[in-house]
Amino acid sequence: MAPNKKWMELIHDRLNNAYKLGVNNFLDFAFTRLREARVIRCPCIKCCNTSSGTREMVKSHLIVHEIIQNYTFWYHHGKKLGEPQSNSEDVEDDDIEEAYGEDEIHGILRDLYPNFDADNTNIDGNDFLEEEQNLEAKKFYRLLKDFEQPLYQNSKVSKLSTMVKLLHIKSIGCWSHESFTMFLKMLKEDLLPTESNLPDSYYEAKKIIRDLGLSYKKIDACKNNCMLYWKDDKFLESCKVCGASRWKEDKHSGETKFKSGKKIAHKILRYFPLKPRLQRLFMSSKISSLMTWHQEKRVDNGMMRHPADSMAWKKFDELHQSFAAEPRNVRLGLASDGFQLFGSSRTPYNIWPVVLIPYNLPP
After folding, report:
1. What span, in angstroms and rounded, lies between the C-alpha atoms of 338 and 212?
2. Residues 6+ apart with CB under 8 A from 8
3. pLDDT tens for residues 194-227?
């Protein structure tokens, strides 16, 4: 159990005995948790957990330079997820929810579809069947059905939560689609009961969780980068600028190439719509509370640790005062670069991702 963190609020009075006692308690906690470690990361505002030092060095840094005020979860110093708070600390709402064992997937559903109450919904009720469902309602109730459906009879985990966790492991482990399908089949045929609801393939697993994520749109592009086949131009067969064909052609016969009965475009732009992604930031209760961090909780002591500390940010605030007055307004940074995915391939395949980064969030 971590010691009280109230002393971290006394950074402007670091010679206070309460602050010094808090530093000693922090060091006792860190060296106890890290056991035989002779040095630990220094969480002062100068080192920012990037440099390590002995107990005496870290202690002097914390008194001279002060501790990072928003470093309240001491993960670099032995604090673990799910660990109970100390009796003297205030317990946040999120911790209360976790203490009551709320399923994390249930929380995700509630954040994604705040207009629907999953706790008081009977998906088998006649009232629901008689109502005309809109698209969002259909997505929600489909997810809710999978959430309430156990993986197998008397299982403690749901079908939906199981697939979310398995696909997360696939992503972290860089598994191929084929290997994931083989893994699902092995689980279903050799380890789980015969009546289990586990899907048979990666494709079926993706169908289960598709409404949890944010999709993207494929937009064909001219092979010479002249235009996009979009909106009024989506049905054109050739570029209206250079006249090049929209579709790939066989080198020998000159006929249009097909794949699964569909023509193959020369180039494809994968567009991730911005608006729903910005909305998603404010759907999550945890993330939405961090969207004002840059103004309400950032430590402004002249050191450059976040874009909000830069002269460019401050100059922007001077020029656009009405925008800066609302801390929830989203500030985005744009980055782009091109690279070749398969360096050893004889056929070059380049992509140019364009990425938007929300600067409101803490580092």
Report:
1. 29
2. 22, 67, 69, 72
3. 888 899 999 988 888 777 766 788 999 999 999 9
